[in-house]
Amino acid sequence: MSKSGSKSKKGSKGEKERKPTALPAAGLLTFYEEDIGGIKVRPEVVVAGTFLLALIVIMAHLGVFGP
């Protein structure tokens, strides 16, 4: 009895071969190529908006906007 009759599923059409993750990652993070709809915002815009919001809150606590 030989094992040559078994078929390998690697390389079949439409399937991408998944490579094992690195040991330190241990599967905690998995990145997918599928695009999920929604708002697209660049990271620079998020950081600038966060900084601006923090600055406005600090200025409001100092009383810059009112008596």
User: How helix-rich are the residues, as a percent range?
Assistant: 25-40%
The portion of residues forming beta strands comes to under 5%
H-E string: H
Total number of helices = 1
What characteristic shape results from the CA principal axes? elongated
In short:
The chain has 67 residues and is mainly alpha-helical. The chain has one helix spanning 43-62.
Plain-language structure description:
The protein has one helix at residues 43-62. The protein is mainly α and 67 residues long. The longest helix is centred in the C-terminal third of the chain and has 20 residues, at 43-62. The chain is elongated, with a radius of gyration of 26 Å. The model has no long low-confidence stretch (mean pLDDT 75).
List keywords for this structure.
30% helix, mainly alpha, single chain, 67 residues
Strand-helix topology:
Elements: H1 43-62
